Each structure stands twice: as C-alpha cells, then as structure tokens.
C-alpha cells in the first residue's frame, strides 16, 4: 500500500490516507452504512476523549493496562483516547430516563478513529495505534431479544463480506476485556494472519485456538470431527454483553408493566481500515493490487495513445470516451480515470494501471480510428483481455456494481 501511494507512514502505527485509499475507505463506509441501516442501526458520533470516571465505573480503567492512551488535562482531570465506547454509549442510553420498551431494540453505531497504544505496531494498517473502526451497541428488553439482535448483526456482517466477495469464517472467540458471555470473530483466512484457528472438517465448527483446551483435537460440537489448524486475519468481533455495563450505569427502560428494567446489551466491531488492508492482502498478486470490486477506488482507467505515436489522433477519442462513460452510465459517475500522461508509452501506463488494480482498463489505440472502432479492454479481476466496440464496452460496464 505504501509502494503504490495509497498510504504514507507518520508516527509508528499511524498513517496518512492518500486520495486513492481514502476513496476506497469512503466506499467501504458507505457499504457498512447500507447494511447497518438495513437492520435498524442509527449512526451517531461519540467523543474520542473519554473521562476516566466512566471507565472506573465499569471497572476497566485498570483492566485495560498499557494499551490505553491516557492523559491529564490542565485541571489534572484524567482522560483516555477511546479504544472502544461501551462506557460512553451506556452512559448516553442511561441519560434517557423515560426510554420505553416500545423504542427497543435500539442499535447505535459510529465509524470513527480509535486509539490503542500497541507495543509493536506492524503489518501497516493491520495492527496500528490509530485506526478506523465501526462499533455498534445494542439495547434490548431481555436476553432472548438481545440474542436475536446479536444474530441479526452477525448476518449483516456476513452480507458485507459476501458483497466484497471475500472468503470469511465466523469463529468462536474469547470475550477478553470487553466482557460478556458470548463472542465471535470474523476472520479472513490468510497465511500471514496472526490468529490461529481450528476448524472441524465434519460439521464446520470453528474457533480461535485461544478459546479451546490446549491440544484439543476433537470437535466439541459434533464430537466426531477432527480439528485442523489454519490462520486468519481478524476483521470483526461481536459480543453479547448481557447487563455487564447497563447494570453499572443504571441503563434502564420502562417495561410493559410500567416498571424500570435493566437493558440487555451487545457490542459489535468491524475493523474498517483492517478490512481495507486485509482484502488487498488476500486478493492481490505479487506485482499488482486486486480490490474487491465494490470498493475499488475507480472502476475504469482509459489510456490514450502516446503523444507523437501513429495512433496519436485517437487521443481525442479517448478523452470523449472517458467523459461519455462517466456521463451516460449512472453507475460510473465519478468512476472513470483518464491517464493523460501521454509522454509515457501505453505499455508503461498499462503496467501502472495493473499495479493500482483498476478493475477495467480501456486502451484506446489505432483500432479506435477504424470505421468499426474497437477498444482493447483489460478485465483485471478475471485476467481476460477483450476487444469491444463502443456499444459492447458500454454493455459490459453498465453491469458494474458500484456503491
């Protein structure tokens, strides 16, 4: 990502997101928004600067240890930069003292920068000290309703990864310092992954190795299958919290009997910048980036001929083509790039286009000047090269899904 100009290093574990990467990141956020809204999620934005009093109230101020960035203000008030927001959102809910059961479930989420003082930041965006996360928090009337919400969010996560055409697995996970009684991770299988996973070849049960007994070889779910080890990159984590936080903060609602009751909670995280980096990791080749189609920064790159070449007269055709594709196809509005570095050969620019991973590269050469004009179209995802008329090209690109 650094070699191709997507990100630039700043402090250890922190990066500049350069224009191309930011376009992809914004598309990913729009995809997440679509799926969160579809299950009733409402987007909020909570303070990154969190009072120590909140964390002491939940008992996590000391539990979080050195991974939490802590600071004092000029009045010696203690604060932290929020690594997660269970305390903050529960306090917000608790402040709504007349919340009726009729308004539940309530699903609040945000997409914000998070901060963790990693001892050894590594793997670029996969393990940093400052990163983007989507965190959602749910409030329900009872355990049954809370588990229904839990499953609903997990299914939405699955749809996100399916729409990105990523291989993924949902595994049993440890609740860690978040707490609760039920937890799952969403993992992208990858040889470089930090997490060790055990998967049953018989029933499909899967778990992070840290949740199982050391040396456990048989599946605890079907009792007959053997567990095989693989590795994965964690890109999502879900927790059923019960009343761990709502009890501490007196997060109450008025139930059907008109009596105050403690809300049941869940929390659900997606590593937004992790998904971006991990998808590139698992899809790319040694010499070229491959994007999930929906979040490719641009869908089409048009290459005019080299200045001064025999096909130079086709330059105007290339410019008109790039403009017309963006104007005539609603799905390609703002999605077409014209590589106007015509002092360079088409071969060099085509190599650059392959490295950057544009899903479609359209080469405008001598054949564009023929009576039956045709264009060379490189389809990066499939590896195919097609020769299409203008109408054929429009038909092909009109089917491209964008967000």
UniProtKB/TrEMBL annotation:
Q: What is its main location?
A: mitochondrion
Provide the Aminoacyl-transfer RNA synthetases class-II family profile domain boundaries: 26-292
SUPFAM superfamilies associated with the record: Class II aaRS ABD-related, Class II aaRS and biotin synthetases
Q: What class of enzyme is it?
A: ligase
What's one GO BP annotation on this UniProt entry? prolyl-tRNA aminoacylation
What is one GO cellular-component annotation here?
mitochondrial matrix
Keyword Ligase in the entry? The reply is yes
Q: Where in the cell is it found?
A: Mitochondrion matrix
* EC number(s) stated in the UniProt entry for this protein: 6.1.1.15
Task: Return the InterPro entries for the record.
Answer: aa-tRNA-synt_IIb, aa-tRNA-synth_II, aa-tRNA-synth_II/BPL/LPL, Anticodon-bd, Anticodon-bd_dom_sf, Pro-tRNA-ligase_IIa, Pro-tRNA_synthetase, ProRS_core_prok
Tell me which family the UniProt entry assigns to this protein.
Belongs to the class-II aminoacyl-tRNA synthetase family.
Q: Please explain the role this protein plays, according to its UniProt record.
A: Mitochondrial aminoacyl-tRNA synthetase that catalyzes the specific attachment of the proline amino acid (aa) to the homologous transfer RNA (tRNA), further participating in protein synthesis. The reaction occurs in a two steps: proline is first activated by ATP to form Pro-AMP and then transferred to the acceptor end of tRNA(Pro).
Name of the featured protein:
Probable proline--tRNA ligase, mitochondrial
- The record lists the organism as Danio rerio (Zebrafish)
Encoding gene, per UniProt annotation: pars2
């Amino acid at each position: 990502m650094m070699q191709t100009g997507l990100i630039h290093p700043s402090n250890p574990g922190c990066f500049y997101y350069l224009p191309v990467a930011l376009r992809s990141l914004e598309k990913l956020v729009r995809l997440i928004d679509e799926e969160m809204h579809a299950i009733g999620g409402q987007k909020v934005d909570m303070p990154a600067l969190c009072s120590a009093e909140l964390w002491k109230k939940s008992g996590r101020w000391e539990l979080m240890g050195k991974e939490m960035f802590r600071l004092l203000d000029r009045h010696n008030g203690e604060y932290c930069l929020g690594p997660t927001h269970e305390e903050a959102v529960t306090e917000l809910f608790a402040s709504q003292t007349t919340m009726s059961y009729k308004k539940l479930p309530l699903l609040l989420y945000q997409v914000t920068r998070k901060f963790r003082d990693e001892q050894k930041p590594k793997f670029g965006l996969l393990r940093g000290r400052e990163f983007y996360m989507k965190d959602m928090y749910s409030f329900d009337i009872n355990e049954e309703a809370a588990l229904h919400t839990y499953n609903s969010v997990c299914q939405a996560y699955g749809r996100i990864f399916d729409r990105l055409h990523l291989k993924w697995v949902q595994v049993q996970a440890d609740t860690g310092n978040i707490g609760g009684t039920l937890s799952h991770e969403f993992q992208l299988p990858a040889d470089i992954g930090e997490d060790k996973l055990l998967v049953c070849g018989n029933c499909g049960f899967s778990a992070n190795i840290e949740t199982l007994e050391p040396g456990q070889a048989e599946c605890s779910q079907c009792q007959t299958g053997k567990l095989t080890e693989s590795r994965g990159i964690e890109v999502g984590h879900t927790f059923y919290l019960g009343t761990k936080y709502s009890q501490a903060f007196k997060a109450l609602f008025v139930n059907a009997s008109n009596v105050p009751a403690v809300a049941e909670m869940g929390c659900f995280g997606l590593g937004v910048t992790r998904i971006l980096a991990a998808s590139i990791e698992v899809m790319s080749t040694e010499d070229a980036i491959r994007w999930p189609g929906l979040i490719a920064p641009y869908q089409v790159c048009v290459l005019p001929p080299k200045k001064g070449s025999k096909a130079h007269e086709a330059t105007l055709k290339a410019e008109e083509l790039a403009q017309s594709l963006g104007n005539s196809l609603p799905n390609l509005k703002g999605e077409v790039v014209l590589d106007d570095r015509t002092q360079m050969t088409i071969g060099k620019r085509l190599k650059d286009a392959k490295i950057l991973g544009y899903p479609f590269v359209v080469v405008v050469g001598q054949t564009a000047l023929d009576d039956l004009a045709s264009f060379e179209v490189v389809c990066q995802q499939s590896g195919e090269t097609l020769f299409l008329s203008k109408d054929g090209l429009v038909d092909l690109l009109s089917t491209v899904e964008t967000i």
